[in-house]
Amino acid sequence: MSEGNRRRELRDQYKNTHPQAAVFRIVNNRNDRVLLGSTLNLTSLQNKLQFAHTTNTATVLDRRLSSDIKEFGITAFSLDVLELLEVTPEMSREQILADLATLEALWREKLDPSLLY
């Protein structure tokens, strides 16, 4: 396979690969408080949390976590993926966001409101 064909194949593969959309929670393991959210790109969120752990900073994470991160440190926080959304090529961005909002609302009902950020 020539270099040009291989590059074209990789480019086509990239264009047809969609990031994972998910509902997640970031858990403070010291006080059990939870930040519930959803994302169009789970890998990006995982990378942000890994970066925060590696650099011991929290500037890439939601600001609602900042006071607890200062108190307990970034190592007190972990990411739980609650539900992956099955995204099809026919779905528009708006449809994906609407489905994520619905899933997040369902998960919000299951969680204790006093523990949410």
Characteristic terms for this protein:
GIY-YIG endonuclease; flat; single chain; three-stranded antiparallel sheet; alpha+beta; 117 residues; 45% helix; 3 strands
Protein architecture, described:
- With 117 residues, the chain is of the alpha+beta class.
- The protein has one domain: GIY-YIG endonuclease.
- It has helices at residues 3-16, 42-55, 66-72, 93-110; strands spanning 21-28, 34-39, 77-85.
- It starts with a helix and ends in a 7-residue tail after the last helix.
- The mean pLDDT is 92.
Set down the secondary structure blueprint:
Blueprint: H1 3-16, E1 21-28, E2 34-39, H2 42-55, H3 66-72, E3 77-85, H4 93-110
Antiparallel strand pairs: 1-2, 1-3
Compact summary:
The protein has 117 residues and is α+β, with helices and mostly antiparallel strands. It has one domain: GIY-YIG endonuclease.
CATH level-two architecture? 3-Layer(aba) Sandwich
CATH topology: GIY-YIG endonuclease
Biggest β-sheet description: 3 strands, antiparallel
Shape estimate: flat
Low-pLDDT segments, ≥5 res: none
Number of domains: 1
Mind telling me the CATH class?
Answer: Alpha Beta
Q: Please count the beta strands (DSSP E, at least 2 residues each).
A: 3
Secondary-structure element series: HEEHHEH
What proportion strand?
A: 15-25%
Give the helix level as a range of percent. Answer: 40-55%
Task: Summarize model confidence as the mean pLDDT.
Answer: 92
Structural class given helices, strands, pairing?
alpha+beta
Multimerization status:
single chain
CATH H level, superfamily name? GIY-YIG endonuclease
